Amino acid sequence: MTKFTTHTMESAPEASKPLLDNSIKAFGMVPNLHAVLASSPAALKVYQVQHEAFLNSSFDADELTVVWQTINVEHECGYCVPAHTAIAHSMKVSEEIINALRNKTPLPTEKLEALRDTTLSILRNRGRLDGEELARFFAAGYGEQQVLEIILGLSQKVISNYTNHIAETELDAPFKQFA
Asked: For residue 40, what are the domain limits?
């Protein structure tokens, strides 16, 4: 396997440098995922735009974490599962939710369980939901907006999970405790 470049500010393409500055502002560092994505300024930009859009969706911190980690765990992403565990802690998501997502055990509420089930169904069935699945999701208190926002979160996670699989992105030091 050819090793993908983990860029620094000095080695990154010029068009990626302001995007890496955005990473530093948002995370206090350049996460290795962003450093790898920097090889393609377009990919890094889209990833950052999707991340910001998903953060500003209608989902609260618990729900954001459910969507992100459901996808990360299903994709078996050795980078994103620990990274989003750290992010969940910083967002004050409970250990109960964090552990349930990582261990594929029941979530504390039916609403969060419906969100996980719907996210998994969209992922596993390539964007297809049957009427019963959609009705259960709506009965849990969600609507059309949230279906579309799951798709937004999924598109973000496809970029990161697939990049990490192919590039074998090294886990950043702050995330290693959650590996």
From this structure: 7-56
